[in-house]
Amino acid sequence: MSRTENPASRWSDQRPPETADEWIKRAREVAGILGEDAVARDRAGLPPHQEVALLKEAGLVTLMGPVEHGGAGQNWITAYRVVREVASGDGSIGQLLGHHYAWAWAMRLVGTPEQIAETEEHYTTNNFFFGGVVNPRDADLLVTDDGDALVFRGKKFFSTGSKVSDLTLLEGAFADTGRHVFAVVPSAHEGIVFGDDWDNLGQRLTESGSVEINDVRVPWSAAAGYVDKQFEQTAYGTLNAPTFQLVFTNFYLGIAQSAMRAGLAYTRGHTRAWPYGGEGKRSGAEEFYVLEGYGDLQSKLWAAETLADAAGVNLAQLLHSERNAVTAEQRGRAAVLIAAAKQRAIEVGLEVANRIYELTGARATANSVGLDIHWRNLRTHSLHDPIAYKRTEVGRYALLGELPAPTAYT
To answer: Which end of the chain has less Cβ packing within 10 Å, N or C?
Structure first.
């Protein structure tokens, strides 16, 4: 992706996509642009302002925004596929887009009808991108009731995307009651200070470093779902964690697809046959172990994608339901299926990213080839929450019929 040229201008004379397939094709075009220099941009580690601008120009940011405000009005089934496609070009940008979709939807989960309408019109009309300061493993931001306003303060050691976003979702807890509350604020708020300390093995362009929140005031009217300072929880309102977990699953699969394509391309063009095999093979593509290896990996990847798609259809039915129609049992079953899909995506993705070296050969380890980006990205984010707990959730359901209780990670 050139930093001196705007490749997104290529869509300026085209009609916007209308169908789900057309939007997935648009996402694939974006992935192609991102994939051209993903390794170089990963190594440079610059904030992905131009990458977010590309998502905006392509129309992907308002994919699920209301049609009446200029959005595409697509559903979560399409959104998950779009995340996967974009991640196949650049895992970091796929993650940012997936987080954007989940945070843009957060108001629908718990907000009042007025808050939902206002938020969706605001971000869709302005083509705004969401970031978030929401990390359950850190201490909660402290929220103080100051009469007509709430005041957020504290620090999160991890966040995602806020530095390159227009709007940031803040979540905190009241000191006296422990009740949680979130609100959407401008990312340029003077009270939001970014640590610029994200320096990890992979997903380097997600701007996931620390953030300090210094006395950020929001009116009570912006406290999502609160009416007369009271909040009523529903099963629908607890769908945030499953929504994010399936975002993770899909950008993992996108990274795995990218690793697979990179391995196949290298093998076709560069991998040599083993000269001591005794069968006179002319290229690595004729080697039995190479053919068997790619066949094994591709079969596993297709299976993981099919499971993720099934989980996406199931969850989308709930996300697009009436709020009071979703039951705790439906929510729990969706979480179990997502847990199964996520563990498969991680295991298959890491296997693909690792085994492609065996199928490409020693020269493929050169830094100029850049195959390491796929394993680094998957390994980094797949540690987000222990995969063993996802297996256990599925095991409890299979063995005991128990559904997972809603948590920040389930």
So the answer is: C
